[in-house]
Amino acid sequence: MKIALTKGRLEKDAVALFEKAGMDVSALRDKGRRLILPFGDDLQAMLAKAPDVITYVVHGVCDLGIVGKDVIMEHGGRYFEVLDLGIGRCHFALAGKKGGDFYVGHGVKTVATKYTEVTRRYFESKGQNVDIIKIEGSVELAPLLNLADGIVDIVETGKTLEENGLEEYSHIADISARVIVNSVSMKLKKQRIEEFINRLGECVLCSKL
Ligand code: PRP
Prior knowledge:
Blueprint: E1 2-6, H1 9-20, H2 26-29, E2 36-39, E3 43-48, H3 50-58, E4 64-68, H4 69-75, E5 80-84, E6 90-97, E7 109-113, H5 116-126, E8 130-134, H6 141-144, E9 150-155, H7 159-163, E10 166-175, E11 177-181, H8 183-188, H9 190-208
Parallel strand pairs: 1-3, 1-4, 7-8, 7-9
Antiparallel strand pairs: 2-3, 4-11, 5-11, 6-9, 6-10
The structure holds 1-O-pyrophosphono-5-O-phosphono-alpha-D-ribofuranose.
1-O-pyrophosphono-5-O-phosphono-alpha-D-ribofuranose is lined by residues 137-140, 153-160.
């Protein structure tokens, strides 16, 4: 089975979880610059950028994917979300300058974010009209440069906000890594996929106890 795995922070935690589940992860630990790595008995990990994990699973070139709920919320697509791995925990927040006036006045506020779809849906659910500006990274700069009244971004430890004189105005949604499955693979490789999910699921459960 082919598993698209989000490169970077999530990758490390996922590899630790595979190991805890008794899978051989030696190639994943000693990968060099390789992007396709064997692990477990008959598994292959494809190291990809988060949004591409979804693309590979949707197109069926990977059976499964491991990707953050943030990316799932932003990109959607046709696949099954089957397991919360409990790793990569963080949350979406609306934030801005300390003591800012985001909720004051009737003018339309400007929000900078990498996650325009999540932001659009959040403010739509609140019935608040906002202008959204897309930023690719270091979104915290936008309110500091007075480009935006607020940002919607991921908060993990809160340090980036704190060290840049920003504060959280609202908690939007909790985030953690999820396993997603291609809908055709789900039918054709049901037993193998269930085995993999159950094995990981038991580990996740143990970590919670
Ligand atoms: C993420 C996020 C925040 C930061 C939050 O950025 O966009 O900037 O982490 O983490 P903290 O609450 O622990 O400080 P990332 O490092 O992924 O890079 P980016 O800014 O380029 O998106």
